[in-house]
Amino acid sequence: MKTGVLQVTDDPDVTLTYYVHDLSNELPNCSFRPAMLVLPGGGYRMCSDREAEPIALAYMAEGFNAFVLRYSLREKAAFPKPLNDAEKALQMILDRAKEWSVDTRKTAAVGFSAGGHLAAALGTMGKVKPAALILCYAATLDSISAIMPAPVPSLDGLVDETTPPTFLFSTSADRTVPIENTLAFARALDRAKVPFEAHIFQNDTHGISLAKPLTSIGLSNLADPVVAQWFKMSVDWLHMVLGDFDCSKTSL
């Protein structure tokens, strides 16, 4: 594996950490891999470590090359600055596709909470867009601005036929980002006839990440084996939307 950290903009705090598989003659059907851009949550005040490297490595274990963006925060988070960061990060991945063995047709972005807002903004407002979105308890409505350091736009009204296919999951009694954020975006995808899959789990926890003990901070309500199913569901959905690695040969 090759890994490193690159500065994305003039701001030294805006960085892209890359996790890229080594090439191997034993993996000839994986010379170019799908890419996952990870956008951690944190209310545009921080980028949660629980929604950064653990997510990147989980997708990497499924064959993706993974990239974690730490975007503009706090007093620097006024829109569209974080969106510009995400656009530049995605363009960086595309520009270095040969170096990083990325299949440019198979780029996806996964975002959590405020990072989900950023992922949804990238998919609706971005000058460059991923081929698929994974939105995890994402803020998509401007009503969430009350808990953000700067106002954020509603994104459901910006969904159109150019919005990428989207996978959404949330928990039914989320008190931080109400479920209406997920439902409104899903309704907008439906109106625009954009393919999507949505899962609402019966849990009241926000910021559940992988819902596994390793990302739980030791809290029992952040480790839920039922909610943890979202990750495999997202991988299966991505294979359906983007395609899986070719295994059609009967002999070498």
Low-confidence parts, pLDDT < 50 over ≥5 residues? none
The biggest beta sheet is recorded as: 8 strands, mixed
As a percent range, the share of strand residues is 15-25%
Shape: globular
Mean pLDDT: 96
Number of strands: 8
Number of helices: 6
Relative helix content: 25-40%
Within the largest sheet, what's the order of strands?
1-2-4-3-5-6-7-8
| Overall SS class | alpha/beta
Terminal CA distance reads 26 Å
Rg (C-alpha, Å): 17 Å
Summarize this structure as a short list of keywords or feature phrases.
6 helices, 252 residues
Q: What order do the helices and strands come in, and which of them pair?
A:
Layout: E1 2-7, E2 15-20, E3 33-39, H1 53-61, E4 65-70, H2 81-95, H3 97-100, E5 102-112, H4 114-125, E6 132-136, E7 166-171, H5 180-191, E8 196-201, H6 229-242
Parallel strand pairs: 3-4, 3-5, 5-6, 6-7, 7-8
Antiparallel strand pairs: 1-2, 2-4
Report what the structure shows:
The protein is of the alpha/beta class. It has six helices and eight strands, in the order βββαβααβαββαβα. The protein has helices at residues 53-61, 81-95, 97-100, 114-125, 180-191, 229-242, and strands at 2-7, 15-20, 33-39, 65-70, 102-112, 132-136, 166-171, 196-201. It has an eight-stranded mixed beta sheet, with helices on both faces. Helix 2 (81-95) crosses helix 4. The radius of gyration is 17 Å and the shape is globular. The model has no long low-confidence stretch (mean pLDDT 96).
